[in-house]
Amino acid sequence: xxxxxxxxxxxxxxxxxxxxxxxxxxxxxxxxxxxxxxxxxxxxxxxxxxxxxxxxxxxxxxxxxxxxxxxxxxxxxxxxxxxxxxxxxxxxxxxxxxxxxxxxxxxxxxxxxxxxxxxxxxxxxxxxxxxxxxxxxxxxxxxxxxxxxxxxxxxxxxxxxxxxxxxxxxxxxxxxxxxxxx
Length: 182
What we know:
Keywords: Coiled coil. The protein has 182 residues and is mainly alpha-helical.
């Protein structure tokens, strides 16, 4: 009788532990979804501002075309091509704003201070959003590698989380911002 009670208690404790682990994994997957939505919002914001700048007429024609096309491609990219398109937008931003002259031209235009501040904020927020997303992915992957999660299929049918890898280095003229803007 005592052995049966001990076995029932042990099975109950194992069940509670597995349930807690499954709940933790579910929370991590929810965190990944929230971080992915935040990353998508920041990428869309950055592409929208870049596209707006490309059509504003403030930049020289070549820079406008390069920036507009990269921003358009980033906004229209399929999920499989998104990392590449976003990296190309980062490269286009670095190419256009390689020198302070382009950034200064945007600042001098009507509404340019506000547009520059929005672009600087967007360029700074993309790496943070990507870092939050990739940290959540890393935590979920680490938990999903445990034998207990695989053996008891605690992840259910959730797809294996993938990190979002892209070039998000900011342009030199926008990374520093203006003195006093930090």
